[in-house]
Design goal:
The complex is a heterotrimer of chains A (about 240), B (about 230) and C (about 280). Chain A is of the alpha/beta class and about 240 residues long. Chain A has nine helices and ten strands. A six-stranded mixed β-sheet of chain A has the order 6-7-8-3-9-10, with helices on both faces. Chain A has a four-stranded antiparallel β-sheet with strand order 2-1-4-5, with helices on one face. In chain A, α5 runs parallel beside α6. Chain B is an all-alpha fold. Chain C is α/β, with parallel strands linked by helices. Chain C is about 45% helix and about 20% strand. In chain C, the strands form five sheets. Chain C has a five-stranded mixed β-sheet with strand order 11-10-12-9-13, sandwiched between helices. In chain C, α2 crosses α8 and α2 packs antiparallel against α9. The radius of gyration of chain C is 22 Å and the shape is globular. Chain C starts with a helix and ends with a helix. The chains are: A alpha/beta (about 240), B mainly alpha (about 230), C alpha/beta (about 280).
């Protein structure tokens, strides 16, 4: 579904030196897979994820989504993004809009749905995450866990074919992590294709189809969840797992 | 002359109070239209300033906007007014129009910096969230970023408008009878400086004080909406 | 929207007017009182020391260097012209140094006695001004001219009614223009700006003293012409030197100097050099 071919991302530092964040990544995400990416910070996980919907433009390499090369400048990236949901570490709900407006803004303004249609869908989804009573409040009155659940719903309102999660629980208080992971598990059970960058090893083991270990700008190791955690191959992964488990 | 006579000469005789009122009217008229021009053009300039190519490099319009701001901020407003009056729009008979335009073009440069700072102060994640949903940059700007930027923009914008209102006091240079000029005019009739100058100063002060209070109310209302 | 705006404006105007009247009648009067007591003290002191600007070594002269050929910015930027030459000659007769300050014409009278000792600026003697200052004997007779475009139909007093008239703020031309029925007067800081706007078509004519009028017209001989004020019924005016009210010693000394300059031919030489251009 998404094929990544040899993508490289360099950042220029202020002093002119170059930081090689991604150093040639090849990978393919198949329909229905739940790919969980773990690894030390600074290893390129988030940058890789953000390249998938071109929030970061790769310095070189190709990304093919559903047969279309989205790194081609002629591609209408907005159309592509409509089919790829993204959830951020810091939620990024629109602060000036109510929950309902957050959910319906994109579907309505992009003329994908009529307003009533979008609102109905939004209400249904809110019900699924038990937040229907929050429809008319502003994000500032919500807890972190509520915000993130609504951010997930916001992406789902666009009927995406794949969902990208960028450390969705890292900014949450510990007692709220569970409620967000529950929603993500539910989504996984429904068959959504997911790419998740996270530090939640339990989630990786339970939900992941494949777990990737990213460090130093490459995918250092890839395995099924069982083997990933029980039979790590590289010393780097062994060291990493010994620290986080 | 006694104080009473001076007061009568400066305000009552020959219905001179009407001159101050008319002058205040002109002052407010110029400042009002200039503020509208400044607000609209300033916002456009700010957006031009912030626009980038797909690869993140500044667009050509960015350089146009910064050049404009540089030039306007680098020259005295009284010269801009004289240039507008005697050169650019020398065939226009509408003094208020020429002055409004001159001050509006001037104010736009300052407004653009205010708007730019206001937009930059909005969390980057808001734009990213909008883009990730497939909204265009323009749509995200319009529905998400600009409404939030307004809160950062209103207070310094109030200051800019107050500055603008006071700066119009130079339109006497091009024979417009604003409030300051009205005071000059009366001084040239009564040969007495105190009453007309202090009188005009008091009127400016009262108007600006009223404006400041109104802006304070607006700001408080906006801040309240933060905690809805 | 318009109505709302009107309402807001009216509100602002109303409030400002009320407070303006209220506070300017109380606050300034307190300040003015101290000012006037200071003034009295000064005049008492002045009387005690036979008080006159004549006691000073240097006389501060105010002018408005935008009124050729009487005064204009000379090649070095400082005021030059007939009035400047005349006051220098007078200063010499009085044995005083003179220092000339360039300022706005409309603030000259108000500045006499505080910022400046004497004003010489092609100033016409009027009753209003005489309330504030004392004048020397007249040293020049002039009449206002009306500068118009060559193809203008303006030729008589009636033609000036309901016209847009450019003048220099606070000058005789300003007063005449303001009294013309239906006139819309544009007051400029400098006469040359008024002439520029006549060329730009923003005003229909410019009323200004005869000599500067000739001067300006000579620079735009193609487009402009100056009409004699007598044609419009303007009265002849007398230019005189303005001095602090009550400083009779100074007035008498200046008049004496003027008289001597006329008798010894200096005055005529200055007229020839500056005005008639011979």
């Amino acid at each position: 579904m998404i094929t990544v071919k040899n993508i490289v991302k360099d950042f220029k530092n202020m002093d002119g030196s170059v930081n090689h964040v991604l150093r040639g990544i090849d990978y393919t995400v198949e329909q229905g897979q739940k790919i969980v990416i773990v690894g030390p910070s600074g290893g390129g996980k988030s940058t890789f994820l953000r390249c998938l919907n071109l929030l970061e433009t790769p310095t070189s390499g190709d990304i093919i989504f559903d047969g279309e090369n989205i790194t081609d400048p002629k591609t209408d990236i907005n159309k592509v993004r409509q089919r790829m949901g993204m959830v951020f570490q810091t939620f990024n709900l629109f602060n000036n809009l109510t929950v309902m407006e957050n959910l319906t803004l994109a579907p309505v303004k992009l003329k994908i749905m009529k307003e009533e249609e979008a609102e109905e869908k939004a209400l249904n989804l809110l019900r699924r995450v038990n937040l229907e009573e929050k429809a008319d409040v502003y994000p500032s009155s919500l807890s972190g866990g509520q915000k993130q659940r609504i951010a997930i719903v916001r992406s789902l309102c666009m009927n995406p074919e794949v969902m990208l999660f960028d450390e969705p629980t890292s900014a949450l208080d510990p007692e709220m992590v569970g409620e967000v992971l529950d929603v993500m598990k539910q989504l996984a059970d429904d068959g959504m294709t997911m790419v998740v960058v996270t530090h939640e090893m339990g989630f990786a083991r339970e939900v992941g189809t494949k777990v990737l270990f990213m460090a130093d700008g490459i995918i250092m190791e890839e395995n099924t969840p069982d083997k990933f955690f029980t039979e790590p191959q590289t010393p780097r992964l062994k060291e990493f797992l010994s620290k986080v488990l | 002359m006694t104080i009473g006579e001076k007061f009568t000469a400066a305000f009552i005789a020959e219905n001179r109070w009407q001159l101050y009122l008319k002058g205040l009217g002109i002052t407010i008229e110029i400042a009002f239209f200039a503020a509208i021009i400044g607000l609209m053009l300033g916002t456009v300039l700010a957006l031009m300033n912030l626009s980038t190519h797909k690869n993140g490099k500044p667009a050509v319009v960015h350089y146009l906007a910064t050049a404009y701001v540089d030039i306007i901020r680098g020259t005295p407003s009284v010269l801009q007014l004289l240039i507008m009056w005697f050169i650019v729009m020398k065939s226009s008979n509408n003094g208020v129009l020429v002055a409004s335009l001159s001050f509006g073009l001037n104010s736009a440069a300052y407004v653009s910096e205010i708007v730019r700072a206001g937009i930059l102060a909005v969390d980057k994640g808001q734009m990213e969230a909008g883009r990730s949903l497939g909204l265009t940059k323009g749509m995200t700007m319009r529905y998400v970023v600009l409404p939030q930027a307004m809160k950062n923009i209103i207070p310094p914008m109030g200051n800019e408008f107050i500055t603008l209102l006071k700066e119009t006091a130079i339109v006497g240079y091009v024979s417009l009878n604003d409030l300051t000029r009205a005071a000059n005019l009366i001084q040239s009739r009564t040969y007495e400086a105190f009453m007309p100058l202090i009188g005009a100063a008091v009127i400016y002060f009262v108007v600006i004080k009223a404006l400041t209070l109104a802006l304070g109310v607006l700001e408080r209302r906006l801040r309240r909406s933060d905690n809805r | 929207m318009k109505k709302l705006l009107a309402l807001v404006l009216t509100g602002v105007l109303g409030v400002s007017l009320l407070t303006a009247c209220g506070s300017s009648s109380s606050a300034p009067s307190a300040a003015a009182e101290t000012a006037s007591t200071e003034g009295e003290a000064a005049s008492v002191e002045a009387e005690a020391s036979s008080g006159s600007a004549l006691d000073k070594d240097t006389l501060i002269i105010g002018t408005n260097a935008a009124f050729p050929p009487f005064e204009y910015a000379g090649d070095d930027g400082t005021p030059a012209g007939f009035d400047i030459d005349l006051i220098n000659a007078i200063g010499e007769k009085l044995g005083k140094k003179v220092e000339v300050k360039d300022m706005e014409f409309d603030s000259l009278v108000a500045s006499i006695g505080n910022k400046i000792d004497i004003a010489i600026a092609g100033m016409t003697v009027t009753e209003e001004r005489q309330k504030m200052v004392d004048f020397s004997d007249s040293y020049y007779e002039a009449v206002q001219n009306v500068i118009v475009a060559k193809d203008s139909a303006i030729a008589s007093a009636d033609d000036l009614k309901n016209k847009k008239i450019g003048v220099q703020l606070g000058t005789t031309g300003d007063f005449i223009a303001s009294d013309i029925e239906g006139s819309e007067v544009s007051q400029y800081n400098k006469a040359v700006d008024a002439v520029n706007d006549l060329l730009n078509g923003r005003v229909d004519c410019v009323i200004i003293d005869a000599n500067p009028a000739q001067e300006f017209v000579s620079q735009h001989a193609e487009e402009l012409t100056a009409l004699e004020g007598t044609q419009f019924g303007f009265e002849t005016e007398n230019y005189a030197i303005a001095m602090p009210k009550g400083d009779t010693a100074l007035v008498e000394a200046v008049n004496q100097a003027l008289k001597e300059l006329k008798e010894d031919g200096t005055f005529d030489k200055l007229v020839a050099a500056n005005i008639t251009g011979e």
